[in-house]
């Protein structure tokens, strides 16, 4: 099949040229960069444009500098979750909720350059379907995306995904994207190739979803599946990204939390329809119990330190206590899994429970909130056998120690003791 011809964009922005995409040359920001909220620069002006996350129509954007992550749609170097008055503004949804009023549909689909890694990797990405897409489709499973699901729910979820992805291409492309992300871990020798495919497929999925006029009964199941898979994909990228300093890591994590919170908006709006759909068993299984009492004592020392610190305002102390409460629930689940639930389920959704005030403390890099994250690092370490987590817990805890310095060593005694001696 011959590549469809088009007028060359000789004056396009730097980002579109680097990604081999047709640029519409709009100033100050082209349509492609507007859609995925990238920094848009033109060689003649070197004028940059950034879009605050709270007004963004696309999910989190994480700063990355390594070649493997440079083209990710999760690339935004400006931490703008706070307003000019330093007031925290939580995201309403992973893609500005159910409203499309601020969405700019992508005017030209991302084009993947031909890979030079052999015949198996070759293929014109402008073709509707190619061998690479088939490989990714056959590889996809809800067990890969959500390993905490049991076999019955995985089988059910796979059936629903296949049915809905055929009707809603944005879901299909995100499934292919997360499948490519998994293959990048399974095949280190082809890591950059699969990661590049993951990024480009995800970018197209987001553009397609943003172009959807509304979320209604006809596409609510596909929209919730898309949002959930995209959220997990985002967390995977955040935990795997070691570029930049610890400030960058924390900012990326906060933005992933905002994305998690946004999924609740999509789900809440569509909840009646979801309960009448084939997703009902999964939705009921995945709905966490916020009011359950804690039973363990893993976070007792953290609670004590939060109560004693004089630097926090009462509202901030309460935010840290709430975050700690759900950490203890997660530890309870790991040490004594509830019937029919995964021991590690809450590890992946802890961000949903975080108060906005706690997210603001993280965003401002308050040491007390950073220290709370050390307990979350221990939870991640307990899930280190999952491909989505790996050594993220150790990395996070060591980074927290280096960031806080020796004067905060007493806050970190328990987390490091668990890494040394194991969780009891």
Care to describe what's here?
By secondary structure, the chain is mainly α. It folds into 3 domains: 7-46, Zn(2)-C6 fungal-type DNA-binding domain (CD2-Gal4, Irregular); 55-101 and 128-286, no CATH class; 300-421. 52% of the residues lie in helices and 0% in strands. The protein has 18 helices and no strands. Helix 6 (169-186) packs antiparallel against helix 7, helix 9 crosses helix 14 (345-353) and helix 16 packs parallel to helix 18 (413-421). Mean pLDDT is 78; it is low at 1-7 and 46-125. InterPro entries: Sterol_Uptake_Regulator, Zn2-C6_fun-type_DNA-bd_sf, Zn2Cys6_DnaBD. This is Zn(2)-C6 fungal-type domain-containing protein. Residues 64-126 are annotated as: Disordered.
Looking at the structure, what is the overall shape?
Answer: globular
Elements, N to C (H/E): HHHHHHHHHHHHHHHHHH
Number of domains: 3
Mean pLDDT: 78
The rounded Rg comes to 22 Å
The major beta sheet can be summarized as: none
Strand content: under 5%
Alpha-carbon distance between the two ends: 61 Å
Structural category is mainly alpha
Percentage of residues in helical conformation: 40-55%
- Residue windows where pLDDT falls under 50 for at least 5 positions: 1-7, 46-125
- Total DSSP E strands: 0
Structure annotation, total helices: 18
Keywords: Nucleus
Biased composition (Polar residues): 64-81, 96-111
Protein name: Zn(2)-C6 fungal-type domain-containing protein
Region (Disordered): 64-126
Sequence-ordered SSE layout with sheet pairings:
Layout lengths: L13 H5 L12 H6 L94 H9 L2 H4 L5 H17 L1 H18 L4 H20 L9 H21 L5 H24 L1 H5 L4 H7 L13 H9 L5 H22 L9 H9 L2 H8 L3 H16 L9 H13 L8 H9 L3
